[in-house]
Amino acid sequence: MDLTSTSGGGDSRQIEETKPLLGGDVPAPEGTKMGAVPCRRALLLCNGMRYKLLQEGDIQVCVIRHPRTFLSKILTSKFLRRWEPHHLTLADNSLASATPTGYMENSVSYSAIEDVQLLSWENAPKYCLQLTIPGGTVLLQAANSYLRDQWFHSLQWKKKIYKYKKVLSNPSRWEVVLKEIRTLVDMALTSPLQDDSINQAPLEIVSKLLSENTNLTTQEHENIIVAIAPLLENNHPPPDLCEFFCKDFGKCPRLRLFTQEYILALNELNAGMEVVKKFIQSMHGPTGHCPHPRVLPNLVAVCLAAIYSCYEEFINSRDNSPSLKEIRNGCQQPCDRKPTLPLRLLHPSPDLVSQEATLSEARLKSVVVASSEIHVEVEPASTAKPALTASVGNDSEPNLIDCLMVSPACSTMSIELGPQADRTLGCYVEILKLLSDYDDWRPSLASLLQPIPFPKEALAHEKFTKELKYVIQRFAEDPRQEVHSCLLSVRAGKDGWFQLYSPGGVACDDDGELFASMVHILMGSCYKTKKFLLSLAENKLGPCMLLALRGNQTMVEILCLMLEYNIIDNNDTQLQIISTLESTGVGKRMYEQLCDRQRELKELQRKGGPTRLTLPSKSTDADLARLLSSGSFGNLENLSLAFTNVTSACAEHLIKLPSLKQLNLWSTQFGDAGLRLLSEHLTMLQVLNLCETPVTDAGLLALSSMKSLCSLNMNSTKLSADTYEDLKAKLPNLKEVDVRYTEAW
């Protein structure tokens, strides 16, 4: 739009902020109006001044109507002009006063403003703006030149954005729309205004344009994304731009698609992933905690959708393939049956139909099926692997990871993506890696990825699982239980990342280093230790023994704990574990320590000792450990640690008291971790006092396995009403309960 100055005796110049809108160039009127000497654009935009976008402010207002008679000319002369103070608000569509009286009784719509100019004339107040409206002029007088320029640029911006919103809301020719979007982006990049909405407004306009026009072709959509990319490319978005990504992508799928293709556009730049990395950094913000809770879920949603699209053609080929149940049953059949697993990943073709009828050809000859993006190769088996364990006759659908466990007839599979899909996959897996590097995002990211929300074709793709291994490693290294516990399955009967990356899992590409790291962090959290050991003994005993044989200290500890807790019932297996332990220096040393403890325990039970024991106040975990190791306490039935400084760490000593029936932990720092350990080993405990301890529902729920409890004091703990009801239902012998000063009271 052309902005035309008016002058009574001076020269007239054109002020042009941006290129014209859809209406084309508006010719400057030949006549001139009031005397005005407009400032040159170079003076405004090249002087280096920056301004904050005004939303409201105090200013003097004078309205001059165009004179039609001699009398009206006299009344509008500069000597008789009247100025009114107003507090004006720059709304989205008009200029309005907080006190709608006098000149500003009615708001001035941006669509009615024909021109905005800076004015100056002799013997007149300085720092004035002129708004040309139909039938007159509105004069705005600021207190100084800086405020005048700030009002000028703010009004120009509001007027322009209002027109762009209006024009782009009803597009007709997309090539013209594309030109106007580029102009809009240029205007935002060159504006002297520095404000959140300067970068936000173009994004909102374009996202609305995309959401309201769902019939765009792929090329048109890509052109729009490329057109708006320089806005964030040259001005990396500050944290306030996260508001754009904080909308619910589930309700606005076009916004997700917009973000997905925008990131791909950034990745195609010369700097590639460096630009994408800066984009992720800007989304997180400069502090250690991202202030926008919706940013991470939206970015993860974008990554999942993009990764899914890489395998979409593969996924669409499942239509005529066997069901998951058939795949599981096929994997369990003897080796003379053709493996059904690859059929889930191959496109149906006449060649495959003929190959299905011939088993020997399927074993001796590689089958390669190509599509426009993906190639799958089934290689002949060279080594046999253990068959999957599943209950025969179970009609429930098997989980996806079990379906991908290779059968004896099909040991390896390779998936190859086309160049474009490969670049897309690499970009978005790299983003998941970047997200896992942020400490504040890692708990939520682990929770979002815990259900393994990827197609099974991706889990069968070696490149994908190899790249994603970095993310799983970050989860395994995090000491927070809320993070590393997400390595386990989301529910019973379904495998998790722990199974996927353990030896024998489809994603395991090392000698068990990641598996050992995961076991170490999970055992260190004391999270259902005995149950976890039982699971390892049933499913991963072989890998544990192999790693222990190679000197892995974590696996040596695991085998010792299995022996100490009597996890292994079979004598031959116990002897094999002992042989494994004695084959290495570290294993031999730890096994000898285990034998010493077992001998001490038997000696303790043989000698007996006192039946009651009370520790002095302010005793510590170390004091308790020294006391219990100095004498015989096989007959100890009542132990009071009230008002001492013991913590959950003392639980490993308490579980070695076989006759303990009453335990008083009143006003100690004994917490959830210790309570879980007690619940697994002291199943004969009858009286437990947890008054004024820091235990929560997470630990108290574990007490449901202590069926012998008849007296339980949970006074002044963080017990909830739901947990209390659950304990009452699961502890049939519970007769005395104290829940005062809790939520359940």
Automatic annotation (TrEMBL):
Species whose genome carries this gene: Delphinapterus leucas (Beluga whale)
Sorted UniProt keywords: Cytoplasm, Leucine-rich repeat, Nucleus, Repeat
Keyword Cytoplasm found: yes
Official protein name in the record: C-Maf-inducing protein
Region (Disordered): 1-29
Assembly information from the UniProt record: Interacts with FLNA.
Cell compartment(s), UniProt: Cytoplasm; Nucleus
Entry's Gene Ontology cellular component terms: cytosol; nucleoplasm
